[in-house]
Task: structure prediction
Amino acid sequence: MEPIAVLSAPLATDLSPLTRHLWARRIVHRVIEQHGEQNDGQDPQQVLFIVNPADLAQIQVLIEQWREGSLGEPEARVASKGPTLVDRLKSAPITALIVLVLIMIFGWQHISTDWHGWLTHSEPLWPSQRALLSTYLDMGFWELWRHTLLHFGAFHLISNLLWIWIFAGAMERVGERGAIIALLIFCGLAGNILQWWLAGPAFGGASGFVYGLAAWTGLRQTRYKVPYGVPPAVLVIMVIFMLITITGETLSPGMTGVANGGHLGGLLCGFLMAILWPVSYRGKHDA
Result:
């Protein structure tokens, strides 16, 4: 697209009042000095060029006002501000509550040793009774699920909180608060049961819940066009990471220290729930 010359003026003429309006309106332009042959032998001139012909009409109005001396200063543009932290918390109260509880539990772990029993209470049952359904029924929901609340390091906690904020926050924005709670309960439980079966009770973390959230948003965003706004590659990356750690643990047990059972159990449960749970939002590409 060729530039369009809209104004020619002597070099001594101040074009800044006009160009300030062009910048304020985000009109692409440029002022170029022309001398000698460029200007047909006339005195040096400064020429105002624009790029988009669609801007021509409003520029002509601005030029006329500038010539008349009635062109004031452009209105200051107020930079648009993104949502504040308070706004984000208000838009995702369930997610914020989960994050707060996990942080509080992490703090409690550093001032109390009561949680140590959570890791040892069922030790006599593993591995001799891990294949018995009665073992899990006797332990009950709380003893199996409460491992979800524990984190043994700041990095582990922060990474899980970040993923929870991304995935669960996206779900809350489309009104899936009940599903978040269900995923927290069932994916946490499924991941913990598989991890307990694989390695016993000495584990902790909300990774089963995190992988359940990833499976849920990844599948429903792709299959049902639910607009979570989560890049599809995120689920792929998380699954690849899980496969790498499983491979590492298979080749050298204890090498990664990752609770792969929690990841895998949460992921499978999340996929299952994403398929079975009713879809209240369907994108325009769904039948």
In short: The chain has two domains: 4-68, 85-276. Residues 283-287 have pLDDT under 50 and may be disordered.
